[in-house]
Design goal:
The protein is α/β, with parallel strands linked by helices. It has one domain. It is built from ten helices and 13 strands.
């Protein structure tokens, strides 16, 4: 099984000790976001976890104990956008973020650190010219330290619109998408970086940009040397091509508080949940209550062992 850590929050930035403590314990407890009294126990071991996929904007705290991941396969989806405090109020400076990115890449290799330039948002401040200049700057600094960049365009969910109420943002037209992607693709290619999209229902192959998979079984097969028998993740949007995974995070827990974030619905709730975090608990925040039911989730490797033996 593939473990996603996590689409719902930034575990490497804020919950690294919790992750490693539970890694050593051999399981994580995860509340069902649709039924809060139903808790899954996710038992883990190198024999059942085919790969960890980490999503982060700041893995620096996580790297202090990364040797504890020895025996596991993993890679990082690492977001570097350069929007600054107006959109990403608690994300470290771009200079610090890029330095951490480079250090991580030197440690584990550029194929295992995927740069995310997403979501792309247009406003008076962050216009087309900004994105071309900003992307050029970041790509130049990350050149040689990553092999792939993932882009997407902001989705205006109700909660996102509410969070962006103070930002003069614009709807992005197909013409703008084409013009921007053409530029970004040329910049990426000049630095030997493959540009792919995330969960976008648009065909951009004429700009040498394919639809990507953030949880990519082909990439994992490269790391493991095994073929994987795994289906598309049925819990994600139709446009998402990701392989199936189990997410061990929780919504409304990320203190980065990025205004475009779909995983934080209520910043007051984020603060309350974060205050309930205990690095020694199986749950990301809070504790198991009398009304809760814990069920062990079946964990099986997706490796095609027979094919490897042949």
């Amino acid at each position: 099984m593939i473990i996603s850590a996590s689409r719902r929050t930034d575990i490497p930035a804020f919950f690294s000790d919790w992750f490693y403590n539970n890694l050593g314990r051999g399981y994580f407890l995860v509340r069902n976001p649709m039924n809060i009294h139903q808790i899954s126990q996710i038992n883990i071991s190198p024999s059942t976890v085919d790969c960890f996929v980490f999503w982060t904007k700041n893995p620096e705290p996580f790297l202090r104990r990364i040797k504890e991941l020895n025996g596991y396969k993993y890679y990082f989806q690492y977001t570097v956008t350069g929007y600054g405090r107006s959109l990403e109020p608690n994300v470290p400076s771009m200079e610090s973020t890029i330095q951490t990115f480079i250090s991580l890449s030197k440690s584990i290799g550029p194929k295992r650190v995927i740069w995310r330039y997403d979501p792309i948002l247009l406003s008076n401040k962050f216009d087309m010219e900004f994105h071309v200049s900003n992307f050029t700057n970041i790509a130049g600094k990350l050149s040689g330290h990553t092999k792939r960049c993932v882009i997407s365009f902001v989705d205006f969910y109700k909660k996102t619109i509410r969070n962006l109420s103070g930002i003069d943002y614009d709807d992005i037209s197909q013409y703008q998408i084409d013009a921007l992607v053409k530029n970004l693709s040329e910049i990426a290619r000049s630095h030997n970086i493959e540009l792919v999209t995330c969960a976008e229902d648009i065909d951009l192959r004429r700009y040498n940009v394919n639809q990507g998979k953030c949880i990519d079984e082909k990439l994992i097969e490269e790391f493991t040397g095994f073929s994987l028998k795994i289906k598309k993740d049925a819990n994600q949007r139709q446009e998402c091509g990701c392989a199936a995974s189990i997410d061990i995070g929780a919504y409304n827990t990320c203190p980065h508080s990025c205004l475009y974030c779909y995983a934080n619905f209520d910043l007051r709730q984020v603060r309350e949940n974060y205050e309930q975090h205990d690095e020694h608990s199986g749950l990301l925040f809070g504790s198991v209550g009398s009304k809760d039911t814990i069920r062990q989730r079946k964990m099986l490797s997706c490796k095609n062992i027979q094919q490897k033996l042949l």
